[in-house]
From TrEMBL:
Entries under InterPro entries matching the protein: AB_hydrolase_fold
UniProt keywords, alphabetically: Hydrolase
Keyword Chloroplast in record: no
Organism of derivation: Bradyrhizobium rifense
RNA-binding in keyword set: no
Protein name (database record): Alpha/beta hydrolase
Lineage: Bacteria, Pseudomonadati, Pseudomonadota, Alphaproteobacteria, Hyphomicrobiales
GO molecular function, one term: hydrolase activity
C-alpha cells in the first residue's frame, strides 16, 4: 500500500523519495566497489552475440558514468557504444533528433539492430527512441528511469525543468506513449530504495515481452554499477533477437532480486 510519502491511495499523485533515502545515495560507492570485487563472478554471465549496445547516461551525467557498464558489456562480447553528446542536461524534444542520428550511425555501421541501455533519464530517451525507430532497436533496458505514473515524483524535477527548458507536463502525448507498451522487448530495473526517483515511476506494464526487475537495496546513483543490476542487464541482452523469456532470479545474485509479483502487489 502507498505510504503518506508515496501519495494518497487512488490520488494518482506520488511524492519524491524521502530525504533519508536521498542522503543514503552515498552508498553507490560501495555498489561500485562490490562490482569490482565480484567481477570474476559477473564474468560468468551469458556471453553476448556481438550485437551493438548504446548506453545512455542519466540526467547531469556523461559517458564517463556509463564507462563501467560499457567495459563490462564489451568484455562479454557486445559492441558497446557511448552516446557522445557530452553531459546530459535534459530535454526530450531537444535531444530527440541527435539521439536518432546517433542510433542511425551505429545501426548503419553494424548492419544490426541496436539494444538500448538507459540509466535514469537516459532510459526515458531509450524508450522514446524505440517508439521512433523500432526498425533499428532490438531491445530496451532501463535503470531507475521515471517514465510512468506521476513522473514529477523525483528529487531532480525542478532542476531538470530549469536546465532543459522543458516542463515535465510538456509533450503529454509523447510521455504517455513512452509509459505505454513498446514495439520491442523491454526490461525495467529499479529499486524501492532509490533516493532520487519514486520507484513506482519506473514500473512498466508486464507482458509476454516486458518485465520489471527489482533489485533490493540498490541506490539510484549506483544502479548502473550495482553487481546484481549488471548481471540482470547482461542476462537480458543475451536473449536472441526477437525472443523474450522471464528473467531467471535463481542465478548467483538471487538474493538481490525481489519476486516478480511484488511490483504489481504493492
Amino acid at each position: 500500500m502507498p505510504t503518506a510519502r508515496d501519495g494518497a491511495p487512488g490520488s494518482g499523485r506520488l511524492r519524491p523519495p524521502a530525504l533519508g533515502l536521498l542522503l543514503a545515495e552515498a552508498r553507490s560507492l560501495f555498489e561500485f566497489n562490490a562490482s569490482v570485487l565480484l567481477s570474476p563472478l559477473l564474468m560468468r554471465a551469458p556471453r553476448g552475440d556481438g550485437h551493438p549496445v548504446l548506453a545512455l547516461p542519466g540526467f547531469l551525467a556523461s559517458d564517463l558514468s556509463m564507462a563501467p557498464m560499457r567495459r563490462y558489456l564489451g568484455a562479454l562480447g557486445y559492441e558497446a557504444h557511448a552516446w557522445r553528446m557530452g553531459r546530459n542536461l535534459g530535454g526530450l524534444a531537444r535531444m530527440r533528433e541527435a539521439m536518432h542520428t546517433r542510433l542511425s550511425e551505429i545501426h548503419a555501421a553494424s548492419g544490426r539492430k541496436v539494444s538500448l541501455v538507459g540509466w535514469s533519464l537516459g532510459g526515458v530517451y531509450a524508450r522514446d527512441l524505440a517508439l521512433q525507430a523500432p526498425d533499428m532497436v532490438r531491445s530496451v533496458i532501463t535503470l531507475g528511469s521515471p517514465f510512468a505514473n506521476d513522473v514529477r515524483a523525483t528529487n531532480a524535477t525542478a532542476l531538470y525543468e530549469a536546465l532543459s527548458g522543458e516542463r515535465v507536463e510538456d509533450f503529454a502525448e509523447a510521455r504517455a506513449a513512452i509509459a505505454g507498451d513498446l514495439p520491442v522487448p523491454a526490461t525495467s530495473i529499479y529499486s524501492r530504495t532509490d533516493g532520487v526517483v519514486n520507484w513506482r515511476t519506473c514500473l512498466l506494464h508486464p507482458s509476454d515481452r516486458a518485465e520489471n526487475i527489482e533489485v533490493h537495496f540498490a541506490s539510484h546513483i549506483g544502479l548502473g554499477v550495482n553487481p546484481a543490476a549488471l548481471w540482470a542487464v547482461a542476462d537480458r541482452l543475451a536473449q536472441p533477437e526477437g525472443e523474450f523469456w522471464p528473467f531467471d532470479r535463481s542465478g548467483p545474485f538471487a538474493i538481490a532480486y525481489a519476486p516478480p509479483e511484488r511490483a504489481v502487489s504493492a
